[in-house]
Amino acid sequence: QVQLVESGGGLVQPGGSLRLSCAASGSIFVVYTMGWYRQSPGNEREVVATITRGGTTNYADSVKGRFTISRDNAKNTMYLQMSALKPDDTAVYYCQCRARTYSGYTGNDYWGQGTQVTVSS
């Protein structure tokens, strides 16, 4: 099994910055693509950014130029640097990864519990 733990959420004023972290642990053989998703009340969960094991990144149009996703493969950790935050960025942010365990033959998707980000003055 793989466990994902997010940290770094909180309350920030519009225009401010936050850095989210996501650490994967467990019986991990390899972590493939990782991603950040978010969900606000009344809305479906949406992708924010993804990053492959090789470092290729993709961003939602709404966060391009403001958010930066990165990862440390040696630590099975992913980050999301968020800048110029807007009230519309308020949501629960979830960490996701596709990973293969030592007992598995294919990759499976895993999710973290989520961390609240609130952008408000």
Short descriptors:
11 strands, mainly beta, 121 residues, 7-stranded mixed sheet, 4-stranded antiparallel sheet
Overview of the structural elements:
- With about 120 residues, the protein is mostly beta strands.
- The protein is built from no helices and eleven strands.
- It has strands at about 1-5, 10, 20-25, 30-40, 45-50, 55-60, 65-70, 75-80, 90-100, 110, 115-120.
- The strands form two sheets. Strands 2, 4, 5, 6, 9, 10 and 11 form a seven-stranded mixed sheet that branches.
- The termini are far apart.
- The mean pLDDT is about 95.
Write the layout of secondary structure elements.
Elements: E1 2-7, E2 10-12, E3 18-26, E4 28-39, E5 46-51, E6 57-59, E7 67-72, E8 77-82, E9 91-101, E10 108-111, E11 115-119
Parallel strand pairs: 2-11
Antiparallel strand pairs: 1-3, 3-8, 4-5, 4-9, 5-6, 7-8, 9-10, 9-11
Shape: elongated
**Helix and strand element order:** EEEEEEEEEEE
Structural class, please?
mainly beta
Helix content: under 10%
Low-confidence stretches: none
- Average pLDDT, rounded to a whole number, is 96
- Number of helical segments with 4 or more residues: 0
Rg from alpha-carbon coordinates: 14 Å
Tell me the major beta sheet: 7 strands, mixed
Taken as a percent bin, the fraction of beta residues is over 45%
How many β-strand runs? 11
Q: Gap between N and C termini, in Å? A: 40 Å
